[in-house]
Amino acid sequence: MLNNITIIILTRNRPKYIKRQIDFIKDWGAQIFILDGSDTKNLFLHDLSKKEQNIKYVYNTRGFDVRLTHMKNQIKTKYSMIMSDDEFFVKKSLEMCIDFLENNDDYVSCSGVAIGFMKSSQNKVIYREVYPRLVGYKISQEDPKDRIVNHMSKYVPSSVYGVLHSSVMTKFINEFKYSYTSSTETTENWLQNTTAYMGKIMVLPVLYWFRSMENAPVQDKNWNRSIKFYQWYNQKKFKKEKNDYIKKFCQVNNESSSSFFELALSNLSKDLNNRGQGTLKLSIKLFFKRMTNIFLYKLKFYKILAKRNESVFFDLEVLKKFLKEKKVKYDFESIKKIEKKILQ
After folding, report:
1. Cβ atoms 110, 100 nearer than 8 A
2. Which of 7, 78, 173, 180 has its Cα between 20 and 30 A from that of 162?
3. Neighbours of 93 (CB within 10 A)
4. Which positions ≥6 away from 142 have C-beta within 8 Å?
């Protein structure tokens, strides 16, 4: 079934993690494009792509945006998705998503529930809750404008790493240049809104995505992550960018009025603020957390730092109870396979 999906992986300067992931998925039968912007070419991936017909390796250091636009006219399968280079997806859950989309023509995106993971100082895989809104999430309004407003009112990244109809992915890639602003978060926002505009969104009650807590976000050329969506939306100096962004999204979707999109982004801004983004309280909290970590690291109190960071995680047995409480289905053998790969 996975021979009908194209997997796009963007990577930069994480050779150990991208090798780990490719070793895990290379035999799935999917078409895999590795878009590498590392400082040096990955010879392992380059050589592997020469041996495996389903793996394409693209090396380009000009930035995330340039690498992604390489995918124009490259997707030949009915479905496609983006994967981060240090994370894992459950094969059976991907197959369930494809099966759902095959049997529900009005849906264009399907994914499942996420769980965060990292390797502990005792060399065990530990977990934590991430994206709790994914549980039970669905965008099913008939009108595309209503779907966008509803989606932005209770936002969660349900489609960024979801299985998509390739028509959605292709449209996003073709319009990528319009999503590019002073805030990198508008690119994710464009993909999410394009998805909702083109069709309905489903999140199945299955364990689908193992979200890595191992690495800091990738810093790439022309890709400054410092400006959050809330700042970009509300600060006067970005007003022209915001207006152009709204205008262009409506134009490419042949909408004469932008009022629905203005409402959707306004709702998103309010929701982000309610969750702390853009508030002084959160900024102070993050500042002190960062300073404490730096202080402990400088003093080489690595064990204290590790224990502090691991305190919000739990083990496999607690994970099973957690998933049961949330009524999320899981395949235990798949979890064990992923744990084995993480610990290698």
Report:
1. yes
2. 180
3. 23
4. none
